[in-house]
Design brief:
heterodimer; A: alpha+beta; RNA Polymerase Alpha Subunit, Chain A, domain 2; 6-stranded mixed beta barrel; 4-stranded mixed beta sheet; B: 138 residues; alpha+beta; Aldehyde Oxidoreductase, domain 3; 4-stranded antiparallel beta sheet; 2 helices; elongated; tRNA-binding (chain B)
Chain lengths: 194, 138
């Protein structure tokens, strides 16, 4: 279910100074666009922005100055990555398909790690296309069977129904590096050593 | 051996001023956890190496450590008991210019608790104030 967020319309001057003054009062500037309609300059409270981040809400229900459903398409952070400076909201119809970035969750203890391999999570998120109403929070990848020297690609991800992959399926997302002693050995040599 | 450039166009550089915060290299990209600088300063190549050793001795081949800064600035110094003048000194060491927000090191393949302990050991060697950060998941 989409998170409900109260918004106000920004009046008067826009720009850097006005935005800074706004942030000092505990508000965060935002823009709403999409669906070939005009842009709306809005403000959200810092508290509601924190809530969006905490709950990983991709879809929000705007109430107040505008009553629409929107996709949180971009968040701008300060250089230290603590405060949110600006939010981009994209108008969305719950029945339409959207392209979003979804994080990957690696589940299980890999066999390769037990052999002494170094786990390298090279891809933390993938781009997928899915209905706006059913954006997956994360995609789970079981890594229990991954041995040292093996990898898993984006194509190996088990996607929920109605979700298709946009990222190239050959992109390596998980890899277990062989321990130093095993490097350069072929599978036959490893078996012989055992 | 400590990091240093393979080849440079000019052996000596002006000292410069460090203004503003980092707008690039300020997010955790490769690993799961990072060490972020809160101050501006120069981090010597030997310090980066000392930090690497401290971290890798702790993780012991379990996790993967990424060094996100590179010492590409040569710093010159005048030898002791030398009279003033006679031109700029000779290059003494290499340093990385760090702005507030720069991610110095990243660690992947370890638990959060392990990463915190590891970076605490590493942070004590650094000339800047740092904080522990996690990869942004939104």
């Amino acid at each position: 279910m989409a998170e409900v967020v109260q918004v106000e319309r920004r009046e008067g001057t826009m720009g850097t100074s006005a935005s800074r003054r706004l942030r000092k009062t505990g508000q965060v500037p935002a823009v709403l666009y999409g669906h070939k309609q005009g842009n709306e300059h809005l403000t959200l409270t810092q508290k509601s922005v924190d809530s969006i981040i905490r709950h990983h809400s991709k879809i929000v229900e705007l109430q107040g100055a505008v009553n629409e459903t929107a996709l949180v398409s971009d968040l701008q952070f300060d250089p230290l990555g603590i405060d949110v400076l600006h939010i981009d909201l994209q108008r969305v119809d719950l029945n339409e398909r959207v392209t979003v970035t979804v994080s990957i969750q690696f589940k299980g203890e890999p066999a390769g790690a037990k052999q002494g391999g170094i786990v390298i999570e090279s891809g933390h998120e993938v781009e997928v296309e899915c209905p706006a109403v059913a954006i997956p929070e994360a995609i789970v990848l079981q890594v229990t069977a991954v041995a040292a020297g093996e990898n898993r690609t984006a194509g190996d991800l088990v996607l929920p129904e109605n979700v298709s992959l946009v990222t190239s399926p050959e992109t390596v997302v998980y890899h277990i590096e062989k321990p130093k002693g095993m490097r350069g050995k072929t599978a036959g040599e490893e078996e012989a050593a055992e | 051996m400590a990091l240093m450039p393979k080849r440079v166009k000019h052996r000596k550089s002006q000292r410069g001023r460090i203004k503003g915060s980092a707008t690039r290299g300020n997010t955790v990209v490769f690993g799961d956890f990072g060490l972020q600088s809160l101050d501006a300063g120069w981090v010597k190549a030997t310090t980066i190496e000392a930090g690497r050793i401290a971290a890798q001795q702790y993780v012991r081949g379990e996790g993967k450590l990424y060094i996100r800064i590179f010492p590409d600035k040569s710093v010159t110094s005048t030898p002791l008991e030398t009279r003033m003048g006679k031109g700029k000194g000779e290059p003494d060491f290499w340093a990385a210019v760090v702005k507030p927000g720069t991610i110095l090191y990243e660690l992947g393949g370890v638990t959060e608790q392990q990463a915190k302990v590891c970076f605490a050991r590493l942070a004590s060697k650094l000339p800047v104030q740092v904080r522990f950060v996690k990869r942004r998941t939104f």
